[in-house]
Request: fold
Amino acid sequence: MPTGDNAYEQAENRERMVAEWMIKGQAKREKPITTSKSFSGKVGEDPTSFLENLVIDAEANGWDETNLLEVIRRFLKDDVRE
Reply:
């Protein structure tokens, strides 16, 4: 019977393997696995959270820094885009 730590490690390994598989598949498809939410700078929106989520989505989609700079404008709305 696996110990709690061993079961946890196995679950983490499975999650990592699935994420790696998804990223490899995305590179072949050229379509994003996940899409970021837009950011308009309105009251109540958290710019730090937006950027953190954008980086996570970029990693999942296999975007490098150049790709990220090219697509970030799509997620900025209203006055923030200027």
